[in-house]
Amino acid sequence: MASLPLSIDVLPDDVPVLELDEAAKRLGVSGNRLRTLIREHNLLAASRNGIPVIPEAFFGTRGLAKHFEGLVAVLLDGGFDRDEAMGWLFTEQADLGLRPADALHTHSAREVIRRAQAEAL
């Protein structure tokens, strides 16, 4: 099995995460499908203490957060690598008072996508 592209040492310690099996269940997909989503950069994953994990903030009530996939596409297409994208998602935006990953669950989600587009140019 090919190794997964994981961000190492980018997630703050206070970010709640799901191990891959839990994440696959939340998405209603097999573990293999989840790993494919990670390899194809449709889903970002990190390593925490050597264990592949996915931040819980990426999930909504029914699968992935509504704007998550679009936001990741904007970041990666705009020149961010997966580590930079993960770091950006978990760096607080002072004027929002939120990290972009957390803002996906608020009325600020579209603003976060606009900011990603502006930074990626």
What does this structure look like?
With 121 residues, this protein is of the alpha+beta class. The chain has one domain (6-120). 42% of the residues lie in helices and 12% in strands. It contains six helices and four strands; from the N terminus they run ββααββαααα. The chain has a four-stranded mixed β-sheet. Helix 1 crosses helix 2 and helix 3 packs parallel to helix 6. The model has no long low-confidence stretch (mean pLDDT 92).
Spatial order of strands in the largest sheet? 1-3-4-2
Terminal CA distance reads 35 Å
* Biggest beta sheet summary: 4 strands, mixed
Mean pLDDT: 92
Structural class: alpha+beta
Count, helices: 6
* Shape assignment: globular
Helix content: 40-55%
Task: Tally the beta strands.
Answer: 4
Computed CA radius of gyration, to the nearest angstrom: 13 Å
In the residues, how many domains can be counted? 1
The amount of beta strand, in percent, is 5-15%
Draw up the topology in text.
Blueprint: E1 6-8, E2 17-19, H1 20-27, H2 31-39, E3 45-48, E4 51-55, H3 68-77, H4 82-89, H5 100-103, H6 109-120
Parallel strand pairs: 1-3
Antiparallel strand pairs: 2-4, 3-4
Quick rundown:
This protein has 121 residues and is of the alpha+beta class.
Tag the structure with descriptive keywords.
alpha+beta; 121 residues; single chain; 42% helix; 6 helices
